[in-house]
Specification:
Shape of chain A: globular
Helix content of chain A: over 70%
Radius of gyration of chain B: 21 Å
Oligomer: heterodimer
Number of helices of chain B: 16
Number of strands of chain B: 4
Largest interface: A-B, 60 and 53 residues
Strand content of chain A: under 5%
Structural class of chain B: mainly alpha
CATH topology of the largest domain in chain B: ABC transporter involved in vitamin B12 uptake, BtuC
Distance between the termini of chain A: 55 Å
Shape of chain B: globular
Structural class of chain A: mainly alpha
Helix content of chain B: over 70%
Radius of gyration of chain A: 19 Å
Chain lengths: ~290, ~350
């Protein structure tokens, strides 16, 4: 039982990271109907920024994290301005492939940056190598910090979308672009901010993942697990993304513990296919009818 | 202009086409005299990638279904060939078997495609490819797991394909057959139905197109062609292991289709040439660049990424689009108008809209 709880908690922790990366997908998809294949790579770049600002430059951890998230937001805005905005109005597939290109480029450029390279780096946090005892359970502070940070971030985002002017404008844009434009919402700027927000969330996820999985050029592959998470959650739903991430994380942890070797790596995809066969638009997806 | 029904059935539009394609054919046939074994090997790779490219083009370029899982079909073809030839079967049996196994897998993936749309389908193919990759790694009794499988030279109806020119002719022959099949599928009812499904599912259905049938067939055909490419690929490499069939291969195939030019069979070949030539160019560039840059790993991936972004931004019709513009420029000289090829924009209408 203790083993089980232990596995579930580490699954929830990694699931939070999947969920946050999935959240990044969903933010962009909801507003702009672009599927950003490079979300995992953005996460990787975020982790590298954090590594640079804390370990390499020796800033304090919290300042370093803030700087990394800010840098990611700037990068997201830049991607929108240079690549995505000229493509608005083109087929969704074209934009999707452009983000595939961004992903390839980001991964190889990260490998070329001096100090980053193709080696693995460790990101030291105030929570490293500490544990908390809870009854018979031993929880690592790293896992706990991921869970707490995710809850805080999601609460913050929910409040942002609910109460802030900008958040409401983003919702309006995602519901109906044309109507939002008529209401005087600057669509282009909102899109840019959504990309910034999505990249910042991805960077944040990278910072959370880094202490338990090292900083490496290929850590962006997590993005490929976040895809199933987002799809499970129905691709357009923010709570769905987090729920999808948690499902994938827990299933993966349990599969790794109870099933033979090899199942852990594909558990996410098996669950995804099973769900898609039963509910083609994910667990939380809303099916819409096409108008001719 | 077409003046009779017989004219419409002709493979080539006019005598000029016959001359040009004839010349191209002669050069390709004479290639073993014109280049060394290394060049021939590259040409063989172009043929293999072009076959897979035509396969994916039928699916993505003409039916509008995007697959991120074609590496799985390539693997299916490669492993089927390797396993059957281990049993001492001839390539003439292993090749159709490879196409069949890959095709059946394709139909299997195509079935959920009926219910899934857009991004959901793409992710489902991605998931499928990951599962196939894992099965290849774990089913050691059949595939040798991570140790991989070695292949001997193929024997085609008793003729050993044991030299570079022989393999090249085999690959070229299969590519020509694939192109002919592609051309003919596209002007048959099936091809028309595929294009109709791509342009509007609702409209196609209203015109009596059986969506389920067309989508599943497109998946099966596309996978079967990729399986044929896989059979050749296995022989070209002579060694296969699961790590040769990762998501990067699937992405590479999508690169072929996009950079070549979506919705054009020529594009599949252009794209294959591009994907083979670009790494060679990077190699040359490494020699010219200062050592600090040239020594960096990952230049190739960067070049692919950059090429992809630039093509989508500036030439969404790909290399075929460039060629079409060039030809149009020549034909209409001196009255070429840029606006002829202007892209039209469409605006968001909400999910699935």
């Amino acid at each position: 039982m203790v083993e089980f709880a232990q596995q579930v908690i580490s699954g929830v922790a990694i699931g939070c990271v999947y969920g946050l990366v999935a959240l990044g997908f969903v933010l962009v998809y909801k507003a702009t109907e672009v599927v950003n294949f490079a979300q995992g790579e953005l996460m990787m770049v975020g982790a590298f920024f954090a590594f640079t600002f804390t370990t390499l430059t020796g800033l304090s951890f919290w300042i370093g994290v803030g700087a990394a998230v800010a840098a990611m937001a700037a990068l997201g805005a830049l991607i929108d301005r240079i690549v995505i905005r000229p493509l608005v109005g083109q087929p969704a597939f074209a934009i999707f492939m452009a983000t595939v290109g961004i992903g390839l480029l980001a991964r190889s450029v990260a490998g070329m940056v001096p100090g980053w390279g193709f080696e693995t780096h460790a990101l030291v946090t105030p929570f490293s190598d500490r544990v908390v005892g809870l009854g018979t359970l031993t929880l690592s502070q790293e896992h706990l910090s991921i869970i707490v940070a995710t809850v805080l971030l999601v609460a913050l985002l929910a409040a942002f979308f609910r109460f802030s002017r900008l958040g409401v404008a983003m919702q309006a844009t995602s519901q109906n672009q044309l109507a939002a434009a008529y209401m005087g919402i600057p669509i282009k700027r909102v899109y840019m901010l959504i990309w910034a927000l999505s990249a910042a969330v991805a960077g944040f996820a990278g910072i959370l993942l880094a202490p338990i999985a090292f900083v490496h050029v290929n850590m962006g592959f997590i993005g490929l697990k976040a895809f199933p998470a987002a799809v499970l959650g129905g691709f357009g739903s923010i709570p769905g993304a987090i729920a999808g991430g948690l499902i994938i994380g827990v299933v993966e942890a349990l599969a790794g513990f109870y099933l033979p070797e090899g199942f852990k790596d594909v558990a996410a995809y098996v669950v995804l296919l099973a769900v898609l066969i039963v509910r083609p638009r994910g667990l939380f997806g809303v099916s819409t009818r096409r108008r001719v | 202009m077409k003046t009779s029904y017989a004219h419409d059935l002709r493979l080539f539009r006019h005598r000029g086409d016959v001359v040009w394609y004839g010349a191209l054919g002669l050069i390709l046939l004479a290639a073993p005299l014109l280049t060394d074994d290394y060049g021939l090997a590259q040409l063989s790779f172009v043929c293999i990638y072009a076959i897979a490219g035509v396969g994916l083009m039928l699916l993505s370029g003409f039916t509008g279904l995007i697959s991120l899982g074609h590496a799985a079909f390539l693997a299916a073809g490669a492993y089927t060939t390797a396993i059957l030839e281990q049993q001492g079967l001839d390539f003439a049996i292993a090749l159709p078997a490879a196409a069949l196994v890959a095709g059946l897998l394709g139909v299997m993936v195509g079935l959920p495609a009926l219910r899934l749309s857009g991004i959901y389908l793409t992710i489902a193919t991605l998931a499928f490819a990951f599962i196939v990759e894992e099965v290849l790694t774990r089913w050691k009794g059949l595939t040798g797991g991570n140790a991989g499988m070695l292949l001997d030279d193929a024997s085609l109806l008793g003729l050993a394909i044991d030299s570079e020119p022989r393999f090249y002719y085999l690959a070229l022959g299969l590519l020509v057959l694939t192109m002919l099949a592609g051309i003919n599928i596209l002007r048959a009812p099936l091809g028309r139905a595929m294009i109709a499904v791509r342009d509007s599912e609702t409209a196609a259905q209203a015109m009596g197109v059986n969506l389920a049938m067309v989508k599943t067939t497109a998946f099966g055909l596309s996978a079967a062609l990729t399986g044929i490419a896989g059979a050749l690929y296995a022989h070209k490499l002579t060694y296969i292991s699961p790590e040769q069939f990762t998501i990067f291969v699937s992405i590479e195939f999508l690169l072929i289709v996009i950079i070549g030019g979506l919705g054009s069979l020529h594009g599949a070949v252009f794209g294959a040439i591009f994907v083979i030539v670009l790494p060679q160019l990077v190699l040359i560039a490494r020699e010219l660049l200062p050592a600090a840059i040239a020594g960096l790993p990952g230049l190739e991936a960067a070049a692919f990424g950059l090429a992809l972004i630039l093509f989508i931004l500036f030439e969404p019709m790909g290399l075929y689009g460039m060629w079409a513009k060039l030809r149009h420029y020549g034909r209409t000289f001196p009255v070429y108008k840029k606006a002829t090829f202007r892209r039209t924009k469409s605006f968001l209408k909400g999910e699935g809209g």
